[in-house]
Design brief:
heterodimer; A: about 120 residues; alpha+beta; 2 domains; four-stranded antiparallel sheet; three-stranded antiparallel sheet; 2 helices; 9 strands; about 20% helix; elongated; B: about 280 residues; alpha/beta; FAD/NAD(P)-binding domain; five-stranded parallel sheet; 8 helices; binds flavin-adenine dinucleotide; binds iron/sulfur cluster
């Protein structure tokens, strides 16, 4: 009988795409430590970085400002968080690398500007 | 950019970098997703971050950068003709590097039977529409081909509120990276149908549905949608050489996606830097 605790994943941390298997806290198939961490996290709560854009609109032009979450967020909350990111109003074009804090979410979420 | 930086490090004094768009960076500027730079910068970054970071290297060096300049002719005598707002210019060079990237295959779009309604796009074009211009091309989407751009756009459109019904792939395997299937399709419950062939695009003014066949069982189905995205491969952009009947060699080089399609920008950068250096 298949072991219930055993789960298989594809590691998405780097393009090598290792096939991981986790059994309890034993991870096999990973070529590096990051993959092992990924598998352990994935069984508890899958986390992903959101990448999207914020619309900056003036009378003259529209500019889409690319952003990413500073840390990965729970996969199941992505749709909700996207709604909050969409509400962000910018008064000027932020510089690449600067941060915006979303406070309308249950826990504050940091966004990093990723484009110029 | 990387060929110019390499050539500069190799000791070349006169380097001219011509770009048809208003800014340097190429396809990276529309890639807002992460997955770039792990090898080259040893850091996971977005395409836009990679582009910005690398651009600094260019502007720090003695490289003449001219944007909004479209090269329309290269001759075997190594003359390069380009047009920009100031007019048309021809320069002659000792070495020419074509780093013109690639374009998306559209033949499949043209040979699919059916009407020609609005709502049919290539995936890369939609990436530009959404990420750069902030325009959503549709709400109810089917993607043809399981290339990376198609899968990345499946996620992107889902995040922007569209419903992506399925990705149809005629082959029996994924054509992009499996990590993109996991994080772009599986994460959002978007089904991938392997060995499924698009038969017809239907609709009068706007796409209304696609008809497709499961090639394993022969079963045909209809799927309602208002938008069809094609992600069926890329072709190296070598038209300038082909038109002039030039083969690479003799001081004329192809690099990056213009040479062959690369999955990773890190590799493009390394190859181009190496080529640039070798010219010094
Ligand atoms: C959607 C997508 C997702 C990707 N995802 C990843 C990823 O997750 N990780 C990763 O590492 N890589 C990824 N890549 C691959 C990587 O981004 C590319 O391989 C790389 O950036 C290609 O660089 P290039 O310089 O060869 O071509 P391009 O970036 O296409 O640059 C070509 C440049 O030449 C200019 N040009 C063309 N013709 C002319 C002309 N006649 N005159 C003047 N200028 C001209 C164009 O305007 C353009 O700026 C992705 C690519 C795409 C399309
Ligand atoms: S296990 Fe390590 S090497 Fe393998 S895909 Fe994950 S991060 Fe990459």
């Amino acid at each position: 009988m298949a072991n219930k605790k055993r789960k298989k994943f594809i590691c998405i941390i780097c393009p090598k795409c290792c096939e991981l298997e986790i059994d309890g806290s034993e991870v096999s198939g990973a070529s590096c430590e990051k993959g092992e961490e990924f598998a352990r996290q994935e069984v508890i709560l899958p986390l992903r970085v959101i990448t999207t854009t914020i619309r900056y609109e003036t009378k003259e032009a529209i500019k889409m400002i690319p952003v990413k979450t500073a840390s990965p967020v729970p996969l199941s909350q992505i749709t909700g968080i996207m709604q909050h990111i969409k509400q962000v109003q910018l008064s000027e074009i932020p510089t690449i690398g600067s941060r915006i804090t979303l406070t309308s979410t249950s826990k504050p979420i940091e966004l990093i500007i990723t484009g110029e | 950019m990387a060929a110019a930086v390499g050539a500069c490090s190799g000791g070349l004094k006169k380097i001219l970098l011509l770009e048809r768009l208003p800014r340097l960076g190429g396809i990276l500027n529309q890639c807002i997703h992460v997955g770039f730079g792990l090898k080259y910068f040893k850091e996971e970054m977005t395409g836009t971050e990679y582009s910005a970071r690398y651009k600094k290297k260019v502007y720090k060096r003695n490289i003449e950068v001219r944007t909004s300049c479209f090269v329309h002719r290269i001759t075997p005598q190594k003359e390069v003709t380009f047009v920009c707002v100031d007019g048309e210019f021809t320069v002659s060079a000792k070495n020419i590097v074509m780093a013109t990237g690639c374009r998306e295959r559209t033949r499949e779009m043209l040979t699919v039977p059916g009407t020609r309604p609005a709502g049919i796009f290539t995936a890369g074009l939609v990436q530009e529409m959404i990420n750069i211009h902030g325009v959503m091309p549709g709400k109810s989407v089917v993607i043809i081909g399981s290339g990376n751009i198609g899968m990345i756009m499946a996620r992107r459109m889902t995040l922007e509120g569209a419903t992506v019904h399925a990705v149809l792939e005629i082959m029996d395997h994924l054509s992009g990276l499996i990590r993109n299937k996991v994080q772009c399709l599986d994460d959002f419950g978007i089904p991938l149908y392997l060995e499924h062939e698009l038969l017809e695009i239907m609709g009068k003014d706007r796409v209304e549905a696609v008809r497709y066949r499961n090639n394993q069982t022969g079963e045909e189905k209809l799927l309602c949608c208002d938008t069809v995205l094609f992600s069926v491969g890329l072709i190296p952009e070598q038209d300038l050489l082909i038109e002039a009947g030039i083969k690479p060699g003799n001081g004329i080089y192809l690099v990056g996606n213009a040479d062959y399609v690369h999955d990773l920008v890190d590799k493009v950068t390394k190859e181009a830097e190496k080529l640039g250096k070798s010219m010094g």
